[in-house]
């Protein structure tokens, strides 16, 4: 089982900030900004290349809830990051979206 599936199952502890039947949001263990939340679907989808009509409702759910999750962390301006594959530096092969904020990141993408 992948590390995020283990977190979803409760086998590995996490600091949860939002949970429902389809998604889980928790604090990143290695935050890069004052607010750094990881949002995952509660089914194992490896990455953005594996999103399809069969599972996209989970991804839609994530985006429907992101504003509420961000607001719960005291921010309404943030960056959403998804890393897909080797070149992008995806280390956990369970699709996830980083919500990063609480600091002015400027206009440069990278
Ligand atoms: P990525 O590089 O996009 O695959 O990001 C994976 C993210 O998961 C990194 O920012 C890690 O800090 C984070 N991470 C890895 N293990 C854990 C964990 N057990 N709890 C919370 N965040 C984690
Ligand atoms: Zn998984």
Task: Outline the secondary-structure elements.
Elements: H1 3-9, E1 16-19, E2 23-27, E3 35-41, H2 56-72, E4 78-81, E5 97-101
Antiparallel strand pairs: 1-2, 2-3, 3-5, 4-5
The structure holds adenosine monophosphate and zinc ion.
Features:
single chain, about 110 residues, 2 helices, binds adenosine monophosphate
Commentary on this structure:
- With 110 residues, the protein is α+β, with helices and mostly antiparallel strands.
- Helices cover 22% and strands 23% of the residues.
- The chain has two helices and five strands.
- The chain has helices spanning 3-9, 56-72; strands at residues 16-19, 23-27, 35-41, 78-81, 97-101.
- Strands 1-2-3-5-4 form a five-stranded antiparallel beta sheet, covered by helices on one side.
- Strand 2 and strand 3 form a beta hairpin.
- The mean pLDDT is 98.
- Adenosine monophosphate (AMP) binds at residues 3, 12, 14, 26, 28-30, 38, 83, 89-92.
Count of beta strands? 5
pLDDT averaged over residues: 98
- Report the sheet with the most strands, covering strand number, pairing sense and barrel closure: 5 strands, antiparallel
Computed Rg: 13 Å
Distance linking N and C termini: 32 Å
Shape: globular
Structural class: alpha+beta
DSSP helix count?
2
Q: What molecules are bound to this protein? A: adenosine monophosphate, zinc ion
Helix percent reads 10-25%
Q: Name the strands of the widest sheet in spatial order.
A: 1-2-3-5-4
Spans of 5+ residues with little confidence (pLDDT < 50)?
none
What is the beta-strand fraction? 15-25%
The SSE string, one letter per element, is HEEEHEE
């Amino acid at each position: 089982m992948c590390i995020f599936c283990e977190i979803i199952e409760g086998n590995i502890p996490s600091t949860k900030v939002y949970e429902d039947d389809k998604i889980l949001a928790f604090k990143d263990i290695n935050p890069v900004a004052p607010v750094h939340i990881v949002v995952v679907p509660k089914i194992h989808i490896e990455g953005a290349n594996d999103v399809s009509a069969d599972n996209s409702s989970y991804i839609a759910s994530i985006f429907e809830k992101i504003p509420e999750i961000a607001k719960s962390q005291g921010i309404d301006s943030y960056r959403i990051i998804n890393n897909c594959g080797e070149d992008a530096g995806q280390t956990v092969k369970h699709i996830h979206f980083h919500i990063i904020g609480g600091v002015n990141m400027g206009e440069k993408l990278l």
